[in-house]
Write a structure and sequence with these properties.
The chain is α+β, with helices and mostly antiparallel strands and 160 residues long. It contains 4 helices and 6 strands; from the N terminus they run H-H-E-E-E-H-E-E-E-H. A 6-stranded antiparallel β-sheet has the order 3-2-1-6-5-4, with helices on both faces. Bound molecules: methionine sulfoxide.
Length: 160
């Protein structure tokens, strides 16, 4: 049994340090990429408050393709460079979007989403996937969330 009970009052740096440690424990010794992404999506969902979508897009044949996630059904394919996810994939940089309506080319999968954080997962300098978090609250994510999710991305790198 996986026994991890996140406390949402925990300061963000500790929350994300615990998240990265739990993620490492979850994927340790398992080499099925779908199973590992599915478990990490569930782990993010139970650890990070105030989300309406959390999951993966992987680069397959030069485009982003939907991977395991929690939330409403989402767009399946996103061109590199398009939307928030495609921008993270194209630049290799985290995208912290306080108001999705102000982001040129934002792709709306769930009308409830108001803010978004996307971090790339790179292996040997090549982006292989992104982790996408959506929130129904404006300005939900800050630099501590971005740093925390980048830490998680360094763990998730082992999947790819
Ligand atoms: N909003 C994203 C699309 C993916 S969904 O949020 C799940 C984007 O602009 O790339």
């Amino acid at each position: 049994m996986f026994d991890f009970a996140p406390d949402h009052d925990t300061p963000k740096p500790s929350l994300y340090a615990d998240l990265a440690q739990s993620a490492q424990a979850l994927i340790e010794g398992e080499r099925d990429d779908v199973a590992n992404m599915a478990n990490l999506a569930a782990l993010i969902w139970m650890s990070v408050p105030r989300l309406n979508w959390a999951g993966f897009y992987r680069i397959v044949d030069d485009e982003l393709v939907l991977g395991p996630f929690i939330g409403k059904p989402a767009c399946i394919r996103i061109a590199i460079g398009q939307g928030v996810c495609g921008t993270a994939a194209a630049t290799g940089l985290a995208q912290l979007v306080p108001d999705v309506h102000a982001f040129p080319g934002h792709i709306a999968c769930d009308a409830e989403s108001q803010s978004e954080l996307v971090v790339p997962i790179a292996v040997d300098g090549q982006v292989r996937a992104v982790i996408d978090l959506d929130s129904p609250h404006l300005n939900r994510f800050d630099e501590e969330d971005a740093a925390g999710m980048e830490l998680l991305a360094t763990v998730a790198r082992q999947i790819f």
